[in-house]
Amino acid sequence: MKTYESLSNEQFFSIYSAATFRSPNKVWSEEDFLLFLKLSGTFPFALIKPNESILISRILYEKSEIILLEVKEESRRKGCASVLIEQFAYRSTCLGAKDIFLEVAISNTNAINLYIKLGFSKVGLRKNYYFKDSQKEDAYIMRLNLI
Questions:
Q1: How far apart (Å, rounded) are the C-alpha atoms in residues 141 and 130?
Q2: Which of 19, 44, 65, 69 gives 54 a disulfide partner, CB atoms 3.0 to 4.6 angstroms apart?
Q3: What pLDDT score was predicted for residue 115?
Q4: pTM listed for this prediction
Q5: Which range marks the domain in which residue 57 is found?
């Protein structure tokens, strides 16, 4: 497992671009991603198990946010995502974060069940958050309390 936290914003985008295993359609454009990383107080952080999984996130004061969590199809259900989230939770706690937030498509029941198993709870709903196959899809906002 490799941890990245002192890379340039462009290097983070390169990791993100190379790691979207499921789809050639990127959720973020390069411009949007770089603007996001430049937000005041944003501390980008990535965990990567090469060619298997990636977690890209930010730690913003007392809150952490998982931006992207992807695991290759053949590596799923082997604990990769759990390890990434647990390591990120530890790192977030060390940096003073009290919560981790994420958004997940309401149709992604496997991910929702994993997050609940890890202690996340649903705290909100974002209408039409994702655009998938020419359709809009809602997303749950989920939170893990770290304290």
A1: 12
A2: 19
A3: 97
A4: 0.79
A5: 2-145
